Every structure is written in structure tokens, then in C-alpha cells.
Automatic annotation (TrEMBL):
UniProt GO MF annotations: beta-N-acetylhexosaminidase activity
Active site (UniProt): E351
Recorded family membership: Belongs to the glycosyl hydrolase 20 family.
Protein name stated in the entry: Beta-hexosaminidase
EC number: 3.2.1.52
Length: 624
């Protein structure tokens, strides 16, 4: 694996006191780190701030260092032209560059690696451990000097994520998202330290992804241009993984900079472009989770292969009685495994209402509603000794077996646990989404929310979520409570995203560890490339801090963080991300001319111009 030793070089280091101490809640870092201390001094970044590899055992053959360093410089210089000059008396305060020592050729970075880091900018020659996304947020443009400043030094930050899984779902079935839009979403995720892009690729409405093993599947796309080749998918995945800061054998890997590059072994018949979307994500420290939702939400599959439908009269769920269905699933997962290298695959399994669809075992209803289906699916299920509920269970468990055979661990939506949780594979991760505090018969639930509680007529209690039950059963869980973390709910405001606690009702420490994280969900019914960014941001950033920052460091009242989040929203805008205002509904337009209270901002009038003198000599080392 790559081991990097990075030095931030500057000459003649003497600091000047320019501000008084400020409260940590006013620091403009998002998400808030685990531990922060800081001073009152200012350094300048040289306009020729450079990357060096002096002393390295290996060259930067892949160009990943140069590429990452360019991204780092871009985000700190994107908003303004840096055209100031440092006076002779201030040369001692200038940061000259970064030196990177590459000590290994192994550059794989996978989910679950230690992401802890230290960032220190001191007035001595002591080593500095740094996270470059955090570092980039400390770099500010000074309108007096026209230079980039690193303010409030010396800094000493120790940090690590609270949860290993910090996700964002995008949905390309309900509305197609062009590749450049997805890449912009990926870039913005790195700014908040989210690390899993959950790609809900296909659904009932469309099947836009190329599957070489079954090439007619993407006949279910909306149109020929609204498709993704497997090479497109590979590009997204492979570049996203190297922007995050991780520790490998004691060395630190920073977000946004030269880091790890995972060379996906994409077979030539799938892609001649090995620098492909999966690659875009991997180079930025993000794992891409592919979702193929079965057996429901799959009507589009039958456009290319009609025999996957139980009948022409009933086109979903997929035909559990047809062996060809599982051959197609096997082919899809085989092709995905060549590109999507994340340890997990999402198999869906939600909203399979066995009362109202083709699994129905009611003879009279089947005869009058789905006559062809009754002659096919119901008969075949009964011949195999299964009723509708058993057919649903059989389908999910067999799909899990296929995924395991391709090296994946499975994530399924919570209905699978509620219906047959004791049968799920032990490696299953249950994805919680539902939350409804009512008590009603299961058939009414089916009518109103298409929720599967089982074939028997019984009462079901839907409460704050299934997570506590999942971890009590010894399974892992990802939390995405729909009334708190669904971004398509435009009337869910950012304070609710910030305040929702994934460990609600889970008090046992061992069970808490089984909650591997959470995910905000950008379902695609009402978003496309024109409005997705402002619908995601800044509300997703509020949840991102909940997933990264230690519980005891989180604000108990969201009003305490409005200053930092307002400033972070402005930072997103400066970096080209169309983040919406904090006020009003999700993706709402600004209500008045823009303003930011001074107490919410870095203000050079408060910090001063950073004049100073001196002639000491220091080197800051950044171990990666």
C-alpha cells in the first residue's frame, strides 16, 4: 500500500497574535472534528505552493499524487484570483509546499480502513499529521493581501469518524442523471466526509445500465441516450476512493490529495477504458454501493426479457417460479462484481406486497384479476410447495446466495427482516427506512403504504424503526429513517437531519457497534440534473456531521450550529456546488438578498492582515 510522508515547508516561522480566542462552536470546520485546539496566528500559502516527492522510494507512475494535489489546490483557489504578494518582512510566514515520500507501490484502499487522522500546524519542527479536506477548510482568502491564509495557527486536531458507513443514495431509475452530474455529487460528498455512494441504478421505471451478460436488459431505459455503459460505471467507481484520509500500518491517507488508487480489474470485454465512474469515486475516497432491487421494483427488466414477468397481465414482481429469473440475477451480479469492488451489494427486497400482486394465492381473485398469471405463477408456486409469502422468502434468500457466490455481502431493505428475519444470512446488513407510529391491520397498511407484514391477517405496529430489533437479533444495520433522512421530503428541514440519532433505543454497547452507520436518501421521483444538488445540500451535510462527529461533541440544539452550517453552505457555493439556503423547504430559492452575519464568518477585519517578522526555520511533516 502507498505510504506517504508529506512535509509542509515554510521558511523563517514567526507568528503574530492577531485574534483573541473564539468559542469552538464558531470554528468554520464541517463536520466538527473529535478534538480541536488552535491559536491566534496567521500563515500564508505561497502562490507557487508545490508538490515534491524528494526521498521517495517509488515514482508517482499513476499520476495520482499530481492529480490529487491539483484537486486540493483547485478547491482552495476556486473562488478568487490569488494575485497578492508577500512583503519581504513576511517571507518567514510563507508555506512553500508539500513533500510526499512514497514508500510502497501497493495503493489499495478499502472500506473499513482506519480513517483517524491528526492535523497539526505548529511553530516548531515537530511532525504534523494532516487531513487535507479539513486543512482546505482552514485556508481562507484575505481580501486585503489577496493571498490564501491559514488562520488561527497553531492547530492541533485529532479526529476519527463515529460510524464507518456514511452514505448518500442517488436514484437514476426515476430520473436519469448524466455522468457529469453524478461526478459533481461525488465531489461534494468528499467535502462532508461521506464515504458511500449508494447507487440505486434500476427500478420499475427504467433499467439504464448495460449488463453484458444479458444485453437486452437496458432496453428498459427511457431512451437510448439515457443509459450507462459498464465503462461509465467503472469510471465512477474507481476514481472515488482516494480522497479520504485513512491510516494504513501507521501511515495516514488524506482526503482530497494524492492518496490511494484502486486499479479495478475490469475485463477487456467490459471496458477498454480502465480509468473509468467507479474510478472517479475511488480516487475520492468513496465506495460505490450498487443496488439491484429484487423481486419488486423490477418491471423494467421485462422490457428486454418478457419471460421475467409472471405474465403480460402482471409485470412485477419478478417471476420466482422461473429458473431464468435467477440466471439473469446471477449474470447481473457477475458483471457488477468486475466493476463494483465495494464489499457490499444492495439487493433491495422492499415493498413486495404479496396480497396485491402476482404472488397472490387467492384462486378467485387470481382468476378474475390475473387469469394468465393464475395459470402460470400460482400453479407453479403451489407445485413447488410454496405460498406467496414463502415465495417471497425463497426469492430473497436465493438472491443472497447468488451474491455471496460472487464475493459480496448483502444489504436488504427492512421488510426482509420483518417478514423472515431469522432466515436471513448472518452477513446480511438490514437497511432501515420505515417509521410510522401507528397500530393498524396489515391489510390496511398494504393499501396505504404497500408494506409487507406477512400473509396472515394480523395487526402490525410500525414505530420509530426496526434498527433496535435488528441489532438485538445479532445482525448489522444501516439507518435511513424516511421521516428524518429522506431528501425528497422537502418539508423535512435541516435541523431534523441534524438531530436524528441513529442509535435511538439502542443502549447496549455491543449492539450499538452493529449499527455500522446511516444514509440520507435522494429518491429520484422529483429530481433530475437541474435540481439535485440544491435538494441534497446543505441538508445532507447536517446528517453527515451526525455520522462523523462523536456524540458528545454534537450540538444538543441545532441552533448552535447554524453559523457553521451557514458558512459551510457558502463554502459549497464557492466550490461550485448549488447548495440551497438553510431557510425554507428543501431546494427552496433564496428569500432575500444574501447575507451572512459577521459572527458566522471568517472576517479578515477580525483576523487582521497577518503582518509579522522573524527568521526562525521550521518544517512541518505530514505523515500519510
Amino acid at each position: 500500500m502507498v505510504k506517504l510522508v508529506v512535509g509542509v515547508l515554510f521558511l523563517g516561522l514567526v507568528f503574530q497574535l492577531v485574534v483573541s480566542s473564539v468559542d469552538i462552536d464558531s470554528l468554520n470546520i464541517w463536520p466538527m472534528p473529535h478534538s480541536v485546539s488552535y491559536g491566534h496566528q496567521v500563515l500564508y500559502m505561497s502562490k507557487d505552493f508545490e508538490l515534491r516527492t524528494e526521498g521517495s522510494k517509488y515514482p508517482d507512475e499513476s499520476g495520482i499524487l499530481k492529480d490529487g494535489f491539483s484537486r486540493f489546490l483547485y478547491v482552495i483557489r476556486a473562488s478568487h484570483v490569488v494575485d497578492g504578494n508577500v512583503s519581504d518582512s513576511q517571507q518567514s510566514l510563507v508555506l512553500q509546499g508539500i513533500n510526499v515520500l512514497i514508500s510502497s507501490v501497493d495503493d489499495e484502499l478499502q472500506y473499513g480502513i482506519d480513517e483517524s487522522y491528526k492535523l497539526s500546524i505548529a511553530s516548531s519542527g515537530d511532525p504534523v499529521y494532516a487531513h487535507l479536506e479539513t486543512f482546505s477548510q482552514l485556508c481562507q482568502f484575505n481580501f486585503h493581501t489577496r493571498l490564501i491564509e491559514v488562520r488561527q495557527t497553531p492547530w492541533d486536531i485529532s479526529d476519527q469518524p463515529r460510524f464507518p458507513y456514511r452514505g448518500l443514495l442517488i436514484d437514476t431509475s426515476r430520473h436519469y442523471l448524466p455522468l457529469p452530474i453524478i461526478k459533481k455529487v461525488v465531489d461534494s460528498m468528499t467535502y462532508t466526509k461521506l464515504n458511500v455512494l449508494h447507487w440505486h441504478i434500476v427500478d420499475s421505471q427504467s433499467f439504464p445500465l448495460e449488463i453484458p451478460s444479458y444485453p437486452n436488459l437496458w432496453n428498459g431505459a427511457y431512451s437510448i441516450p439515457e443509459r450507462y455503459t459498464m465503462a461509465d460505471a467503472a469510471e465512477v467507481v474507481r476514481q472515488v476512493i482516494s480522497a479520504f484520509f485513512c491510516r494504513l500500518n501507521g501511515y495516514m491517507i488524506p482526503y482530497l490529495c494524492f492518496i490511494h488508487f484502486l486499479y479495478s480489474k475490469v475485463k477487456p470485454e467490459l471496458s477498454s477504458n480502465h480509468f473509468s465512474f467507479c474510478s472517479y469515486a475511488q480516487r475520492r475516497g468513496i465506495n460505490v454501493l450498487a443496488e439491484i432491487d429484487v423481486p419488486g421494483h423490477a418491471q423494467s427488466w421485462g422490457t428486454g426479457y418478457p419471460t421475467l414477468w409472471p405474465s403480460q397481465d402482471c409485470q412485477q414482481p419478478l417471476d420466482v417460479s422461473n429458473e431464468f429469473t435467477f440466471q439473469v440475477i446471477d449474470g447481473i451480479l457477475s458483471d457488477l462484481s468486475k466493476v463494483f469492488k465495494f464489499k457490499y451489494v444492495h439487493l433491495g427486497g422492499d415493498e413486495v406486497n404479496t396480497r396485491e400482486n402476482c404472488f397472490d394465492g387467492d384462486y378467485l381473485k387470481a382468476i378474475f384479476t390475473y387469469p394468465q398469471n393464475w395459470l402460470t405463477l400460482v400453479f407453479r408456486l403451489q407445485k413447488q410447495g410454496m405460498n406467496a409469502s414463502q415465495g417471497y422468502e425463497y426469492f430473497v434468500l436465493r438472491a443472497q446466495e447468488i451474491a455471496l457466490s460472487h464475493g459480496y455481502e448483502c444489504i436488504n431493505w427492512e421488510e426482509t427482516f420483518r417478514t423472515f428475519g431469522d432466515k436471513l444470512k448472518l452477513k446480511t446488513v438490514v437497511h432501515n427506512w420505515y417509521a410510522l407510529k401507528i397500530l393498524m391491520p396489515s391489510n390496511l397498511i398494504s393499501l396505504f403504504v404497500t408494506y409487507q407484514c406477512g400473509l396472515e391477517k394480523r395487526w402490525c405496529r410500525l414505530d420509530v424503526g426496526v434498527a433496535a430489533q435488528v441489532v438485538a437479533a445479532g445482525l448489522r444495520c444501516v439507518v435511513s429513517r424516511q421521516d428524518k433522512w429522506y431528501l425528497d421530503h422537502l418539508d423535512t428541514f435541516w435541523p431534523e437531519f441534524y438531530s436524528y440519532e441513529p442509535l435511538t433505543n439502542i443502549t447496549d454497547p455491543k449492539q450499538q457497534e452493529l449499527v455500522i452507520g446511516g444514509e440520507v436518501c435522494m429518491w429520484g421521483e422529483t429530481v433530475d440534473g437541474s435540481d439535485i444538488e440544491q435538494t441534497i445540500w446543505p441538508r445532507a451535510a447536517a446528517a453527515a456531521e451526525r455520522l462523523w462527529t462523536p456524540y458528545e461533541k454534537l450540538a444538543k440544539d441545532p441552533a448552535q450550529v447554524i453559523g457553521r452550517l451557514t458558512q459551510f453552505r457558502c463554502l459549497l457555493n464557492q466550490r461550485g456546488v448549488a447548495a440551497a439556503p438553510l431557510t425554507g423547504y428543501g431546494r427552496g430559492a433564496p428569500r432575500e438578498p444574501d447575507w451572512i452575519p459577521k459572527r458566522f464568518c471568517w472576517m479578515e477585519e477580525e483576523l487582521g492582515s497577518g503582518n509579522g517578522s522573524g527568521s526562525s526555520h521550521s518544517v512541518l511533516l505530514l505523515l500519510i
